[in-house]
Amino acid sequence: MITVMASIVVVLSAVTAAHLPAVADRLTRPDEPPAARRGMRRWASGAVGGLGAAALCRHLPATSVPAMLTTAAWLVLLQAGLLLTLTDLAVRRLPTPVIADAAAIIAALQMTAAVAAGQPWTLLAGLAGAALFGGGYLAVSVLTPTGVGMGDVRLAALIGGLTAATGWDTALAAATLPYLLALPFTISQ
Known about the structure:
The chain is mainly α and 189 residues long. It has eight helices and no strands. The protein has helices spanning 4-18, 20-28, 38-59, 65-91, 96-117, 121-143, 150-166, 168-188. α3 packs antiparallel against α4 (65-91), α6 (121-143) runs antiparallel to α7 (150-166) and α7 (150-166) crosses α8. The model has no long low-confidence stretch (mean pLDDT 88).
């Protein structure tokens, strides 16, 4: 059951996500005037933002202050991920400022949640996850320079930190999911 607070979060997430195509256009095409081509992307982005927020609110019920902060960190990752997806589709790169800003906000939320819960080890788990994911993607980047860029390495570290702080089972799912999703594409090649 979705509460009133969760409903507000879902609506705000959908509205925020609906504005991300305009932000992505400013990042990728700063010299072009705003265009009507954003219409369908705006609706799709808003739908993904709203549905993603609903899934997060359902899966991560905010029953305490630390749980609310953890949910907020995941919502930041959702919005940043949508913006990065739109940008990556347009110019095939992940802008460092977007990843850095999301990482700073998520780190602050995670630190506050760890202090509020009295569980400092979640910060160590987050650092370990960031190092493992970022280091793994860095190794892949060095071995195959055309396949994985430094934006991917930074994003992997961000995702590794958040998922490991949430739980190692979540980190394992995050580590394997991209490869499972890419499997049909790889097989078709």
